[in-house]
């Protein structure tokens, strides 16, 4: 993230003008921004039904737009980075600069049946605001007339995201590191009982318990550094047969219990003092995805290890961390997800579908380079089926149900599509980018082998089992990475 916050937080006047124009377009002709919802489709293709925006949906989006007005006023007062309060005020209008989707749902629970309706309305608003920059159309939401209506005030210098509208994701992920320092914008107003008025965050003082991070904090990051201290003793791990272990790395762990065990019981907090640790607590939130990209931006050569359970959900979680950020869905969903939905059961058929899709969108060269570079820095270290077969006892293995086998097949098709896209564009990259391309293809091959192994093995296991320890697994995995 750059230090200039205007890239992410437009001025109050620009936000007000854009939202006012969107409101007039919404009320004046609801059909122009009516979402097209998918009905249950057959295997031959999904059926779609076009309809006008209902009065209730229009009311929902107008309510959210009105809430954005209050955040615009707060932004004009210089509070655009302020965090939400833990207790939502009883008033029905926002008085704070930032809030979460959950806050919006509780404030308007009589209007929104579920929180998913809030999420859908926010996406529709962002898509409409970004219409002048891109013809956004997601896999879940398209528009009845091809694109949302033009909105006055949507300059190309601003990407309209949840964060730009003052909407945060609730802090879920945990960040830890004994020598890691996070630098924030001096103007950032990250109000928290633990971070009040700080420009630098020393993760060491949070200990192995770590610091919960949200999008407001990640958006304010301008630097990530590993403090210069005497080098720690060599990292020795059980079952480790290789000395080529990265002295500086970022380790992403799926489950909090696994991270706690690694840092405390097995002493990785002391043994890997120059490592940074991130726990996603399951599928990653927007903050964890954004942090990984900020980290890679400041440390492009530092490897990112991902350690998940030995099942298809673990592989899926790891891939979610590699994909584009939550706010940039357009090109990825058009180029990949539509191909996956139209794929045949044959993987080669899915690849042909990807190549022949004339409606496929593609990112800018800068965006694509960042995507490939980031994937190239990732190392999926497990658990894989072969590691599970080697380390787990028979009583710790569980049979994979058919729905998980189907999910693994879909993921494999997605990996093949991305591999094909990278190979097709490898001929037009520079020599430096070719190294990133090779690394990205190697990472994708790790994912392909992981899902192929799960499909063939048809067994799964979790990291924390009775007869093994995460550190022992980590050592075994790194020794063959």
UniProtKB/TrEMBL annotation:
Topoisomerase 6 subunit A/Spo11 TOPRIM domain boundaries: 250-326
Q: What InterPro entries does the entry give?
A: Spo11/TopoVI_A, Spo11/TopoVI_A_sf, TOPRIM_Topo6A/Spo11
Q: Name one GO biological process term.
A: meiotic DNA double-strand break formation
Q: Which GO terms describe its molecular function?
A: DNA binding; DNA topoisomerase type II (double strand cut, ATP-hydrolyzing) activity
Cellular component, GO, one term? nuclear chromosome
- What protein name is recorded for this chain? Meiosis recombination protein SPO11-like, putative
């Amino acid at each position: 993230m750059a230090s200039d916050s205007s890239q992410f937080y437009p001025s109050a006047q620009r936000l007000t003008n854009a939202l006012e124009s969107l409101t007039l377009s919404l009320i004046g002709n609801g059909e122009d921004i009516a979402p097209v919802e998918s009905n249950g489709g057959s295997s031959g293709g999904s059926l779609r039904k076009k309809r006008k925006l209902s009065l209730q949906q229009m009311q929902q989006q107008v309510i959210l737009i009105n809430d954005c007005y209050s955040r615009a006023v707060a932004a004009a007062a210089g509070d655009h980075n302020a965090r939400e309060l833990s207790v939502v005020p009883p008033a029905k209008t926002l008085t704070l600069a930032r809030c979460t989707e959950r806050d919006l749902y509780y404030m308007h629970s009589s209007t929104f049946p579920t929180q998913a309706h809030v999420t859908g309305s926010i996406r529709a608003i962002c898509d409409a605001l970004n219409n002048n920059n891109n013809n956004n159309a997601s896999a879940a939401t398209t528009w009845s007339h091809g694109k949302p209506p033009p909105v006055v005030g949507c300059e190309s210098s601003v990407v309209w995201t949840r964060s730009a509208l003052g909407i945060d994701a609730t802090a879920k992920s945990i960040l830890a590191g004994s020598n890691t320092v996070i630098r924030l914008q001096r103007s950032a107003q990250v109000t928290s009982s633990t971070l009040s008025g700080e420009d630098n965050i020393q993760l060491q003082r949070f200990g192995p318990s770590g610091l919960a991070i949200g999008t407001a904090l990640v958006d304010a990051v301008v630097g990530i550094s590993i403090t210069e201290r005497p080098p720690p003793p060599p990292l020795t791990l059980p079952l480790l047969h290789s000395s080529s272990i990265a002295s500086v790395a970022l380790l992403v762990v799926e489950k909090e219990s696994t991270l706690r065990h690694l840092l405390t019981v097995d002493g990785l907090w002391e043994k890997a003092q120059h490592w940074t640790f991130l726990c996603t607590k399951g599928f990653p939130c927007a903050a964890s995805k954004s942090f990984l990209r900020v980290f890679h931006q400041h440390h492009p050569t530092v490897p990112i290890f991902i350690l998940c359970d030995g099942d298809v959900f673990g592989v899926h979680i790891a891939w979610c961390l590699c994909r584009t950020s939550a706010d940039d869905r357009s090109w990825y969903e058009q180029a990949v997800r539509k191909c996956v939905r139209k794929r045949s059961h044959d993987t080669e058929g899915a690849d042909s579908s990807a190549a022949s899709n004339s409606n496929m969108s593609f990112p800018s060269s800068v965006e694509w380079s960042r995507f490939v570079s980031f994937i190239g820095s990732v190392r999926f270290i497990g658990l894989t089926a072969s590691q599970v077969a080697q380390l787990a006892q028979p009583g710790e293995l569980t049979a994979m149900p058919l729905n998980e086998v189907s999910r693994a097949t879909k993921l494999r098709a997605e990996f093949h599509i991305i591999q094909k896209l990278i190979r097709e564009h490898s001929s037009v990259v520079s020599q430096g980018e070719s190294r990133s391309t090779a690394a990205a293809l190697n990472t994708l091959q790790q994912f392909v082998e992981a899902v192929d192994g799960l499909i063939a093995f048809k067994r799964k296991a979790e990291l924390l089992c009775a007869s093994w320890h995460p550190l022992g697994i980590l050592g075994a995995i790194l020794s063959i990475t």
